[in-house]
Every structure is written in C-alpha cells, then in structure tokens.
Design a protein that fits this description.
The chain is 48% helix and 26% strand.
Length: 132
C-alpha cells in the first residue's frame, strides 16, 4: 500500500530531525497556516505553530517586497534559547524548523534547504496525481 502524503511529509521531517541533531522539531505548514505534517514535542501545539508560521511568512513576504528586497527566501528568528527557520517548500507550503541555540547554522541551513526541496517535490507530485 502506498504511503499517504502526510506519511511521506512526516518521513522527510523525521529524516531532517535525525540528520541534523540541532533541529529539535519541524513542521510543514500550508500558506494559510494548516499543519500538513509535523514532528513536534508534546509541549508544542500544532495549530498554534501553524498559525504563527503563516503570520511570520506573510509579514516576511510583505516586508521583503515592499522594501525592494525581492521574493522572500526565508525567515530567521533568533531567541535567547534558539532559532526558528521558515523556508519556502515550493509554492504551497513552508518548512518550519526549531533549532537549538549554539548550532552551526550553516550546516543546519544546508539540511533545512535539502528538506524543503524534498518536501516541495512530495507536494508537487501529489498535486500532479490529483489533477492528471
């Protein structure tokens, strides 16, 4: 039996969290804030993370465009206990990754970009299947 889209997305997220020990949690969120798949600790609410991701992405896109910086590539938030990366995963979703403080950000960013590309391919393949 073929894996569902959610299972394939969750598998990509698990691979990211396993490959990059600095990534504590990750989620794939639609542009309207719906969590499509996640690997989150019980202390985080999926719906809340989805809503905050959509809000940050929307604000980042508007800021980037209105200040003449072009199309948004990513949003990076630094807190005193760690980081939040939001990166486009195709045109229809965003990958949100929660990263530990003190991480080697270049390596983490490389892993997050790879995961975002894989997630975009999963979503695009699913879209083609639905509309062929």
């Amino acid at each position: 039996m073929a894996e569902s889209r959610e299972e394939r997305l969750r598998s990509a997220l698990n691979e990211l969290v396993t490959r990059s020990a600095e990534v504590d949690a990750a989620a794939v969120v639609s542009m309207d804030g719906l969590v499509m798949a996640s690997v989150l600790p019980n202390t985080l609410e999926e719906d809340r993370l989805g809503a905050m991701s959509a809000a940050l992405l929307s604000l980042g896109e508007r800021t980037s465009e209105e200040l003449g910086r072009g199309e948004l590539a990513q949003v990076f938030v630094e807190g005193n206990a760690g980081y939040v990366f939001l990166m486009a995963a195709g045109e229809d979703a965003v990958l949100t990754a929660l990263v530990r403080k003190g991480s080697k950000l270049g390596l983490v960013l490389y892993d997050v970009k790879g995961a975002a590309k894989k997630i975009a391919e999963i979503i695009k393949a699913e879209f083609r299947i639905e509309y062929e």
